[in-house]
Amino acid sequence: MAISREVFTEVLKDSYSAYYSIHDDVETDLPLVFRADYGARDEKYWLTKKVKVWANEKNEYCYVFSAESFSPELADRCMNWAWEDGLPRVKPHAEHQCTNVKVIFIADSVSEETARTIKKKSATKNYKFGLHGYSNLLTGVTSLGTEKTVTNSAGHELVPYFKKLFAARA
User: Fold this and answer.
1) Helices 5-16 and 158-169 meet at what angle, rounded to 10?
2) What is the 3-class SS of the chain, one letter each residue?
3) HSE-up of residue 61 (Cα within 13 Å, Cβ side)
4) Among 38, 46, 7, residue whose Cα is nearest residue 21
5) Across the 170 residues of the chain, what is the mean pLDDT of every consecutive 10-residue run?
6) How many Cβ atoms from other residues are within 10 Å of residue 66's Cβ?
7) How far, in Å, are 31, 37, 111, 163 from residue 64 at the CA level?
């Protein structure tokens, strides 16, 4: 028996809430359920904090959309909106490594056209020729009926993540 979209969305939100800041109040006419923001900073010192050897910053903005099914046009609108909403949040500087925009679609069923549209979508932006980091678009769709996940090449990390979520509810 397939898990319901509402239950799976709550499981996903609970999973993200451990490390991400959850925002339920994002205004849009798209079927956005929530946005999750993540930020991490690592630093290495030598003897004292005044002598910094290196520093590294990574950020991620995850947009979760949920609907019974997505048309290729709606999926493309959602991905473009998330990319355009996420990029102004990026603050590139010398210690910035990357800021990824992740778009997750949760659907009861996914057509081949929609899966192909999501799989082919890619976007990348470099800041100061990559010296101030980069941004990638990670996309993935999971079909709750078949428990199958399709991602673009940058979002391959989502497949084992969703397998764990499906296994955890069993």
Assistant:
1) 120
2) CCCCHHHHHHHHHHHHCCCCEEECCCCCCCCEEEEEEEEEEEEEEECEEEEEEEEEEEEEEEEEEEECCCCHHHHHHHHHHHHHHHHHHCCCCCCEEEEEEEEEEEECCCCHHHHHHHHHCCCEEECCCCCCCEEEEEEEEEECCCCEEEECHHHCCHHHHHHHHHHHHC
3) 19
4) 38
5) 81 91 90 95 88 90 94 95 95 91 94 94 91 93 90 91 77
6) 20
7) 9, 11, 18, 17
**Token representation of residue 93:** 């500087």
Torsion-angle region of residue 143: left (phi > 0), alpha (psi -120 to 50) or beta? Answer: beta
Q: How many distinct structural domains can be found in the chain?
A: 1
Within 10 angstroms of residue 3's Cβ, the number of other Cβ atoms is: 16
**Which of 74, 84, 81 lies closest to 110 in space, CA to CA?**
74
Residue-wise pLDDT tens digits, 30-39: 999 999 999 9
Give the domain range for residue 13.
Answer: 5-169
**What is the C-alpha separation between 68 and 143, in angstroms, rounded?**
10
